[in-house]
Amino acid sequence: MKKIATVKRINASALALSVGILIAPLSCSAASESAPSTEYPSDVNSQSGFRLPLPAREDLDDLARKSYDRANTPGGNIAGLRGPAGVRLYSPVTAYHHAAISEYLRKKSGIPPIAREIAILTTARELDSQFEWAEHEPVALKEGVSPQIIDIIKYRRSTSKLRPEDALLIELGRQMWAIHKVEPDVFAQLKEIYGPQKLIDIILLMGYYGGTAALLSAVDMQLQPGKGEPLPVPKSRIGGWYPVFFDSENQVALDEIIEKSVKGQIKKLVIGFDENTALANNIASQLRVGCNCVLEMRRSSNQDTDSVKFDHQRVTVLVYIE
């Protein structure tokens, strides 16, 4: 199985590389979470936590009242009304069907709880959904997902040391959401482990939470009061570049870069590496042949400390876009 951790978002590793230092932390402390804030953007309603006020129950029709009561009942859902259930009150028919789909996928489909939460967390991470991550990380821990797996998902580390059934789920989510193409061997191995029906249910589960992440993003859903942002996500991608990480050869990711270059969407590529010269040179040779943009290579090294470990085998390609 080809390992991939392709991420189109600016993180500490890529930011350091942009000034000539390659940093790929393998361990980070909880201090990386931002401090809680009670200040909301001016267009966010302070009671609902998003860009619309929470509808009053008496103003809802019968179908919407059922959704309201379900969300407002302890155990009805994870976040209550201050979350996606509150937003969906504006669309009562879809709220009703969303609840049924969620109930099936999360509780009745037979997806093992650990697999379910790995799929949800991977989707939340790859889509940078702070709200989904904040709500589901405690659930994942309760269901038996190890802190090691959570950190691998959270910090986009290599899955090479995990059990195949866990590693493959993370790879599936990364490929679905980051490069929009799932490799045949990943799909085949997951089908062997879970069977066709359960695998499709897992994919539908990821799609469900991907749609929820999009909804929360559009309405700028704020975290629950007292919670800081749990994911190391930049405030924006402004800056004209993004990193693509290579832990091994990944033709799919390379082809995507080459395709964008051919279309004139890339003005420069910077390949950052430390010990893995062979992988860096292989990536460079393919990009030189296929791309028509400036290509640079930067070798740099960082010393491990007691609190921070670096992935010296990882190769990072910074893609500077037009």
Fold and architecture overview:
With 322 residues, this protein is α+β, with helices and mostly antiparallel strands. It folds into two domains: 12-25 and 237-321, 2-Layer Sandwich (60s Ribosomal Protein L30, Chain: A); 29-231, AhpD-like (Up-down Bundle). Helices cover 47% and strands 8% of the residues. The chain contains twelve helices and four strands, in the order H-H-H-H-H-H-H-H-H-H-E-H-E-H-E-E. It has helices at residues 12-18, 62-72, 84-87, 92-108, 113-126, 130-143, 147-154, 164-179, 184-194, 196-218, 251-262, 277-290; strands at 241-246, 266-273, 294-299, 315-321. It has a four-stranded mixed sheet with strand order 1-4-2-3, with helices on both faces.
Key terms for this structure?
disordered N terminus; 4 strands; 60s Ribosomal Protein L30, Chain: A; AhpD-like
Radius of gyration: 21 Å
Average predicted confidence as pLDDT:
84
Structural class, by secondary structure, is alpha+beta
Number of discrete helical segments = 12
**H/E series:** HHHHHHHHHHEHEHEE
- What is the CA–CA distance across the termini? 33 Å
Poorly predicted runs of 5 or more residues? 1-32
Q: So what's the oligomer here?
A: single chain
Q: What spatial form do the alpha-carbon principal axes imply? A: globular
CATH topology of the largest domain: AhpD-like
Strand percentage lies at 5-15%
Major sheet strand order: 1-4-2-3
Helices, strands, pairings?
Blueprint: H1 12-18, H2 62-72, H3 84-87, H4 92-108, H5 113-126, H6 130-143, H7 147-154, H8 164-179, H9 184-194, H10 196-218, E1 241-246, H11 251-262, E2 266-273, H12 277-290, E3 294-299, E4 315-321
Parallel strand pairs: 2-3
Antiparallel strand pairs: 1-4, 2-4
Helix pairs in contact: 2-4, 4-10, 5-6, 5-7, 5-8, 5-10, 8-9, 9-10, 11-12
